[in-house]
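Handout, tutorial session.
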Amino acid sequence: MVKAKYTLHTFIRWFLFLVVGALALTSFSLAQTPSPASLESFYVGTLHLGFAATRASCQPPDRNIDYALVNRVVEDLQTARQGAEAMSACLRFDLSKFDVFRTQVPNRWSGVLRAVEGLYQDYQRAVASSSCRFGSNGPAQLESFYVGSLFMGFATARPTCFIPTWNAPLPHNVNAMIQRDLDTARTGIEAFKSALPNAAVLVAQLDNVRRNLGTVPGRQAYDNLTALHQRVQTAVRSSTPAVASTTTYTAPPPDRARPTQPRTNTRAGSPQRSQSCESCVSEKCDQPCKNSIMILCTSADRACQQCIERNCSGL
């Protein structure tokens, strides 16, 4: 009888020890706070997911892939992987998913786009279920910031679909898509604004870029968008834990999150492929591409692609 009581007492003691330990571990996990450097890596990686999707959406879906351009997509996904790895203490995600094109590449651009879309949607679900906290900004605010950063990537990359003609204003429908992208980016910044220094200034700058889209050439629109996301990156680098914003946000469904494929003007009088390549080469090869983040050649002419690869390969 005494032995039975002793055994029961020992069992209860070990059970309570395990319960308390589990609760402590759970509390530790929930309290994981990414460093500003980790958050910056996450932001840059998410931008590159947007770049990757737009690279693919620029191409006709049934066109055979260009391996030089796919290599750029692979580089984008590796940058995204680094961002996810930087947040691994509180964000669980299978990092091997970022290696989707290392073993097998689809034959058509439509397959590349589907794979990238599936990746950023899976990643969004992981962000939403993470245990990351930045002050009182929790997974809900981080998910909003993730979606906003993704759409900032879409917005920045869209003008590069029109490099051969971007001395002229972008097509009206493309400006409209970029404006919608920036609306979503704005929501993400506002949801996370308590942790971002000068968030109100960032929002004002975003609104200014959005407002002027239709009045500037495509190249200037690209430069403005690049400067904008660099300012956001600087703010993220200086971020501090703070009280969460009360902004509520519902992430867009997958069909809205998908970057709409821009269409190149094919009406009579538009540049032929060789003319587009010539203008692309003359414009891009005469300058060092210092401000470029991603460069495409929509003419699909190999000479243009090689020129751009030579001049911008270090970006």
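The second record follows below. Compare its token runs with those of the first.
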Amino acid sequence: MLIEIGTWQVPSENSETHLEVAQTLVVLQRAKRDEMLYKEVRFYTEVDEEASVEHWMYIDFFENLEDCQKHWDMLEKDEGLKAALENVMSQIVPDSLKTSRWIEKDELRL
């Protein structure tokens, strides 16, 4: 199992708009669920009232690295998904997106 984690920030005043464009991306992916290679996706938020930003995080679960890479290739090739992803990215604080990939140690699974 592999997970990809992405974190980013959104200015608090753009919170509602960001949620709407993120929902659009999710709806498009649900419509193509059979083509999506992730096993599961989760989104989380945390509000930082002192900094006037909202912290966002996604966790995508994949069977392996190859499926993860194919997934991102598909997002770049499908014009509707690509446009929706670009719209999401336009809402975030510049340079705040950070991603990492983690491979599960099966022998340590509880």
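Points raised in discussion: The longest strand covers residues 2-11.
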